[in-house]
Each structure stands twice: as C-alpha cells, then as structure tokens.
Design a protein that fits this description.
Blueprint: H1 8-18, E1 23-30, E2 40-49, E3 53-61, H2 70-76, H3 80-84, H4 89-92, H5 97-100, E4 104-107, H6 110-123, E5 133-135, H7 136-143, H8 152-159, H9 169-189, H10 192-199, E6 203-204, H11 206-213, H12 217-225, E7 231-234, E8 239-243, H13 244-271
Parallel strand pairs: 1-4, 4-5
Antiparallel strand pairs: 1-2, 2-3, 6-8, 7-8
Helix pairs in contact: 7-9, 8-9, 11-12
Length: 274
Amino acid sequence: MKTNLLTSTELLNYYRQISTEVFAVVDLETTGAVGNNDRIIEISVVKATLKDGIQQILTDLINPEIVIPDQIVRFTGISQAMVDRAASSDRILPNYLPILESGILTAHNFNFDYSFLQAEYRRLGITFKVQAQLCTVELSRLLLSHLPSRSLPKLVKYYGFDVGKSHRAESDAIACWLLLEKLLTQILNSSDAEIIHLFGQQWLSVQNISVIFKLSPTRVESILENATIKSRFSRHRQINLYQRSGVEMLLEEIKEELKTESQKEITEQLSLPF
C-alpha cells in the first residue's frame, strides 16, 4: 500500500488499524543494488506484534554463487569465505516463505528488499507477492520530517537502539522492528491533532500530489503555480517538494472546483459523437 499517497486522516486511521497485526520485518544484505542482477548474501526476518514483542527471528548467510565486490565486504563485514561456507538460495529461501507470509511484510526502504526477494524466488520458480506491506522509511518521513536523515543507522543512533553492528541483516531487522514499534506506539498514544500536525510536515512531490488530488501531474503543476504552499527544492532529487499540510488545505479549498471540473469533463465526453 502506497501510504504516502493518502491524506493525513486516512493515514492516521490506517496505521492505527494495522497496529494490532503481526509484522514480518525483513532485512537483506546483498552484492549490489539491483535485484535482477545482484544477489542476497544474508537474510533476517523478525516476526513481532506490538502486544507481545518479538516472537521469532530467523537469520542466514546465503552463498550468492558469485564474487562479493570489495566495497560490499567493507560495508557489511561479510567476506567471501563466510558465504562460500553457506548454503545457496535454493536451500535457504524456501524455508523463509512461512515467516515472510505470516504478517504485514515490513522493511526500511521496502521496495529495495522486496525487489530482491521477488527476483530470488523467481529464480527458484516461485512467485512471491504480498498484499500487506509497510515501509518504515515512509512512516519515518511522516513522523520524523524534522530529521536531516532517516537512514536506519541514523535512526538507530537517534533513538539509542542497542542492536549491534549496522549493515548486518539481523541487527538491521531488529532495528527496523524497534523503529516500527516506537512510531506505531507514538501514533496510538497521541491525539489525532498531534499526529496530523506531524504528518503535515512531510514533503510531497508533484507525483505524490497528483495521486492525492486524482489529477494529472501537469494539472497539479498549474494549480501549484498560483498557490501559496510552503515548498522547497530538493537538491538530492532535483525537484520541488511541497509541505503536506498546505497541500491538504489547498485540496479542501478547491475540492468543489475540482468536482465541477470533473463533471464538466464527463459531460463533454458523453456529448462527443461516436
């Protein structure tokens, strides 16, 4: 579920609703950044709930059957000798299907881990697809927009989580769970107004806004040109970003106008000759 494309009220209801669910929190170490080309060298999954905490942890090194680049060895501390002694993905990954499918699949930068899992299972002739998913990067952007970085190591330091060395799968999976636990608990224990205020500080792209507004990016850009919404330029992404609170206020202001515009377009389309 692309939660960054919902309104603040919808987000609040969504996160409170899923807080009673089981979470399968996954972290992977890999030989590179592209799931279709690179391979998993370590996997860890934490099964947990807010009520009972961590119930199960599975962790394994995986032999990628290719050479690990030197920069990955330095980054993770996982050497070629370590994975050469490990079993290959066809021996390891089938054992992970039950826990991966046991709850809401969660990761920090979900799309990265999910793409690798899908690619690895595809190599084994297994279709891996989950409907219930959660990204703690997205959740961090909503509640921690004031921080300069929401990378997992920086958030571990920010909260003081005692999880051991970063960039090892088990440490990072536990850290991801502790982060999720912390943020969901904050949502449950705070008032609606407090959470919606925090959500409102998030920065959205034109693409994000176009989905919330249900309009084309071009139409959104034309609307934003005449709006007085707090914005900033992202040097990293090389795009303008707009603060969620202002975007949602604008949506309320022009909702009737957009409704009329949509009805007019439908009428015009119906009047066209076949």
